[in-house]
Amino acid sequence: MLKLDHQGEQVSHDIVHFKVGLNKDISTRVTLHKFNTIDGIFHAALEVERELKENSFMAAQPEATKAVQKHPPRAASSGVEVDISAKLASLNANMTCLMVFGKKYMDDEFDERGFKDVIEETVILTATPDMGEFIPFLDVFDLQGLTHRMKELAKIFDDFLEKVIYEHVQDSKEDKQTKDIVDTMMNIMQSGEAEFEFDRRNVKAIMLDMLIASMDTSATTIDWIFTELIRHPKVMKKLQNELEQIVGLNRMVEESDLEKLVYLDMVIKEGFRLHPIAPLLVPHESIEDCTIDGFDIPKGSRILVNTWAIGRDPEIWPEPEKFMPERFVGSNIDLRGRDFQLLPFGSGRRSCPGLHLGLTIVRLVLAQLVHCFDWELPNDMKPNDLDMTEKFGLVMARAQHLRAIPTHRLENILGISNE
Ligand code: HEM
Hints:
- With 419 residues, the chain is mainly α.
- The chain has one domain: CATH 1.10.630.10.
- It contains 15 helices and 11 strands.
- Strand 1 and strand 2 (9-10) form a beta hairpin.
- Helix 4 (84-101) runs antiparallel to helix 11.
- 39% of the residues are buried.
- Mean pLDDT is 79; it is low at 1-43, 56-60 and 414-419.
- Residues 15-16, 24, 52, 209-210, 213-214, 217-218, 221, 277-278, 281-282, 344-347, 350-354, 357-358, 362 line the site of protoporphyrin IX containing FE (HEM).
């Protein structure tokens, strides 16, 4: 188990670590600090999760629209191919910063390598099996260099999070219109009304948690579903028709349109079925002995839920390898974790607290991409030639970036420029 020290304060990496022993077990070298106020952290995390569930922090939303407006159209005017995966990653980084920290941060304000690289390395290190965990006496030698690399990353995160807190303290006298997650936590910390100890280290720990949990998830989801749309031109056309009917061609899709977009909803469910971005969820721990399907599971077992395999099980899904959004016509299956055949956000009280926000971003950005542009593949590539290889990690992304050439569909819309 690794401890990361910086300026005498420690940062932890994941709320789930604080809740170890309740019903989920994450055992990675990134378990950084055992707080003696585990109840305090638990309460604070719950408070933030409640905020997340009730308040979608939609300060982030215009960012989605702006970014979609700004980047692809430029390329569209000159028929230049767009690296969609890269654009989505930077869009998601902007939205995450806006939502968690209340403002956008440039990559170099974080670190010379930028958010994506550093977070990607953190996620890869977290998922890499560590010999020291299995053969404890080897731990001290750090033979794979994982602890050393993680310490370097922790210093980058800690410096950045200290800066964010400092800025929030400076701004706290101003009457801010939009609340971000740091504001919420600073309120808990400063109110003195909390029945638990909650200090700066805890604020940093939760900020880090949110940053990592939201940075790659929505972008990777959109990347996969959009790839499927490009591979299935008929589905793309059908979705464009729905958007034309509901939204028309004289304005862009807005959040208020989303609930009317029934086919979009099916496309997204079908995308999640084939490409759950956390294929094994996060490891859980059984809190009591139980029997499932004739298998005895003792208390304290580590449980991996293989949502990837569930999504492709032919006993549940006819022709499971086919991308067919129509399979959801007339179906009540939703994404909230009540239907065990489709669990992209997990299930139960430890399911994803960012579901509402993540889903809104996915729906809005996908709708914008499909509504605003027609898309074709570069170099006369055929849809079936698209490389669908997966890159395994905590978040399972496309191994190859998706690239495509957009052409405007909404020529007359203000805000879409040809610059
Ligand atoms: C499409 C986007 C997203 C997907 C598919 C997704 C998926 C997941 C999954 C599968 C889990 C593990 C659940 C389990 O093991 O049962 C999880 C946990 C979590 N997610 Fe998300 N997520 C997304 C967006 C977000 C966003 C935007 C945030 C924060 C703003 C967020 C914050 C978290 C946190 C804090 C946890 C840990 C919860 C706990 O352990 O109690 N997620 N997410």
